């Protein structure tokens, strides 16, 4: 077995590989950029090598630096993780030429599957079901129209070298093809330096289902069943699960057999994923093959009991697979939620900054479910603008799908992050949706269910009870503390309060101590009893049980009450004396500040360009500036006609969220 492996990656996947290497007794080397100098992976590795500035194209993507680091440290092999150089056939070949083992598939397999047109040709030859379409280069728009009408609308126009949602467009008519084909070709040329285009049938209301395959250098290939990855936003996966709620045993076996056939056709010898687009009728068609470890591999590990990183290392060493297909089976259900540094309330814009608080749920077995959290960060770490905004991958396993969903919901409640925007409330909203729980999903799910963006959810009656009881219990603690600190005051704190959650006000009588509190709802003839309370003033998380059911809420003080969030429901909870409640009814509504003359930064980032100047006339929709964060460029446009009064930033400036960029007269 290898004695030393270099990890050519960063963040949670670097930490993930280190954990397996430690268990196998293999020393690790981690390379790092300036931005990652103090990272968890650097702390955990046996050796580290600095490889350059923060931008990936000056560090993690420079093959010469990775090879030099191997030679410097004596690492026998490189694990590329995912992203960066993981699917670079030239890098894999370079490693081989230098006598370094690439822990991944052979260069030939990467090359064969890396081109979408060529991979479809391999798939057809291997008997894999492919989407009806034209597999070959298309000369011009006229030919594209002819092919599209032969296939039948809608069709998908795709760049052969595309990826990450670029170079792709759906055409519903002849006009869409006439407009879309040259646009996709131009985008492909600009993004990938390759303007080859193909056209295939667009599957309406599709599902994204992938098969995990595993091969060795002795010709053995098995599949480790499927993952459903249909919950996507902008072609990026958000929630994955294994197995898929769509498939039956016959369809699962057919998909698995086709994936294995394709892997054998290209002599695949590591972990890889064959991706399919599936119809709601269980029809399925080959999409592409990812010749690397997938981000979502933990859900497969949870239902099979296998360590995929270990299997990759053993295959690279030359070991034969220690099991056959008949030895493998599905155990239970697993769900993964990707915790991203992005603000769901601001159209999921990237949110960079420091993790002022980072408190994930405890890993291990709970009440009927198991939690796993793959992360590469600690409290106090910085989420950099230079890399992917994923903070961690939270997984829940249980014997059944609904139990796994419930476990994930509770784990998301227990996950507390402060200092930057994060998508935990959004993920919790999905877990609570009836449609998701039914399994009737598609890649259009987020677009369908959150067409107007995400603004949280309205609290249910059960959540209103939770918010009411928590607000009253916290107020009682504060009141008791205030009385004990005040000179000459004695006796119990006030018992009667009016608790307002939104517009609804409830008269309540509060009794009890820190561990157990009863809130009598005087106008409803019932009581809310909180038990096992775990909270003290200043603590941002309140844990308790209401009616015997455990819950966790995020809390923060606010004028005359608290801001409390339970899952995706967030509310200002006022706890008032009866007299103050009467006065509140007489207060005028607060008017929002007029920001119509200001262009505000929607996120923290870097100004790439400032496209207007003071005194300039600007029309609605014109570009004002371009901001960059998390490898994404965001175009900021004018929302009104006007004359620029002042410009407060220039190209190269870092800016904070809500910072005033431009003022109009």
What does this structure look like?
It is built from 17 helices and 40 strands. It is of the alpha+beta class and 665 residues long. Strands 14-13-10-11-12-15-23-21-20 form a nine-stranded antiparallel beta sheet. Strands 25-26-27-28-29-30-31-32 form an eight-stranded antiparallel β-barrel. Strands 3-2-1-4-5 form a five-stranded parallel beta sheet, with helices on both faces. Helix 4 runs antiparallel to helix 5, helix 7 crosses helix 8 and helix 12 packs antiparallel against helix 13. The chain is globular. The termini are far apart.
Tag the structure with descriptive keywords:
Rossmann fold, 8-stranded antiparallel beta barrel, Dna Ligase, domain 1, 9-stranded antiparallel β-sheet, D-amino Acid Aminotransferase, Chain A, domain 1, alpha+beta, 665 residues, 40 strands, 6 domains, 17 helices
What's the short story on this structure?
This protein has 665 residues and is α+β, with helices and mostly antiparallel strands. It contains 17 helices and 40 strands.
């Amino acid at each position: 077995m290898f004695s030393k492996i270099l990890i050519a990656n960063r963040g949670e996947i670097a930490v993930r590989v280190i954990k397996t290497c430690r268990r196998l007794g293999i020393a690790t080397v981690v390379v790092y950029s300036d931005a990652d100098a103090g990272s968890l992976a650097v702390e955990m590795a046996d050796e580290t090598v600095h490889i350059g500035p923060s931008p990936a194209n000056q560090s993690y993507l420079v093959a010469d630096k990775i090879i030099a680091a191997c030679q410097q440290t004596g690492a026998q092999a490189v694990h590329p993780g995912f992203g960066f150089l993981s699917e670079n056939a030239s890098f894999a070949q370079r490693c081989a030429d230098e006598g370094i083992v690439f822990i991944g598939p052979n260069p030939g397999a990467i090359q064969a599957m890396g081109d979408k047109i060529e991979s479809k040709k391999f798939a057809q030859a291997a008997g894999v079901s492919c989407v009806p379409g034209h597999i070959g280069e298309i000369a011009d728009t006229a030919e594209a129209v002819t092919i599209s009408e032969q296939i039948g609308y809608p069709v998908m126009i795709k760049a052969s070298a595309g990826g990450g949602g670029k170079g792709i467009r759906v055409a519903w008519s002849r006009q869409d093809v006439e407009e879309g084909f040259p646009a996709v070709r131009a985008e492909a040329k600009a993004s990938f330096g390759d303007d080859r285009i193909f056209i295939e049938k667009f599957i309406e209301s599709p599902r994204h289902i992938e098969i995990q395959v595993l091969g060795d250098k002795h010709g053995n290939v098995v599949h480790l069943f499927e993952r459903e990855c249909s919950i996507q936003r902008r072609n990026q996966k958000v929630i994955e699960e294994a197995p898929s709620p769509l498939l039956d045993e016959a369809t699962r076996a057919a998909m698995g057999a086709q994936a294995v056939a394709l892997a054998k056709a290209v002599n695949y010898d590591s972990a890889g994923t064959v991706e399919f687009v599936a119809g709601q009728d269980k029809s399925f068609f080959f999409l592409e093959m990812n010749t690397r470890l997938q981000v979502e591999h933990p859900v497969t590990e949870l239902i099979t009991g296998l360590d995929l990183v270990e299997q990759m290392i053993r295959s690279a060493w030359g070991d034969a697979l220690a099991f056959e297909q008949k030895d493998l089976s599905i155990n239970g259900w697993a769900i993964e939620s990707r915790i991203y540094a992005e603000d769901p309330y601001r159209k999921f814009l990237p949110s960079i900054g420091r993790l002022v608080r980072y408190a994930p749920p405890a890993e291990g077995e709970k009440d009927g479910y198991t939690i796993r959290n793959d992360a590469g960060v600690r409290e106090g770490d910085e989420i950099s603008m230079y890399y992917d905004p994923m903070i961690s991958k939270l997984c829940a396993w249980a014997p059944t799908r609904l139990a796994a969903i419930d476990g994930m919901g509770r784990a998301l409640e227990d996950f507390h992050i402060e200092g930057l925007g994060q998508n935990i409330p959004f993920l919790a909203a999905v877990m609570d949706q009836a449609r998701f729980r039914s399994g009737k999903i598609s890649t259009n799910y987020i677009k369908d269910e959150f067409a107007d963006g995400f603004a949280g959810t309205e609290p249910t009656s059960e959540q209103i009870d939770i918010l009411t009881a928590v607000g009253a219990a916290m107020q009682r603690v504060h009141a008791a503390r205030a009385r004990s600190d005040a000179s000459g005051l004695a006796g119990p704190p006030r018992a009667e309060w009016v608790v307002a959650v939104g517009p609804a006000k409830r008269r309540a009588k509060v009794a009890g101590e820190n561990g157990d509190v009863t809130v009598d709802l005087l106008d409803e003839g019932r009581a809310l009893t909180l038990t096992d309370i775990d909270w003290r003033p200043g603590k941002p998380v309140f844990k308790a049980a209401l009616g015997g059911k455990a819950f966790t809420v995020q809390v923060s003080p606010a004028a005359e009450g608290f801001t409390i969030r339970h899952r995706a429901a967030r509310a200002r909870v006022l706890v008032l004396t009866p007299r103050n409640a009467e006065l509140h009814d007489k207060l005028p509504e607060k008017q929002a500040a007029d920001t119509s003359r200001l262009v505000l930064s929607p996120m923290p980032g870097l100004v790439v360009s400032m496209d207007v100047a003071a005194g300039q006339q600007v029309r609605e929709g014109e570009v004002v500036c371009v901001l960059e964060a998390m490898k994404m460029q965001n175009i900021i446009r004018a929302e009104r006609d006007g004359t620029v009064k002042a410009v407060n930033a220039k190209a190269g400036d870092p800016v904070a969220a809500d910072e005033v960029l431009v003022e109009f007269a």
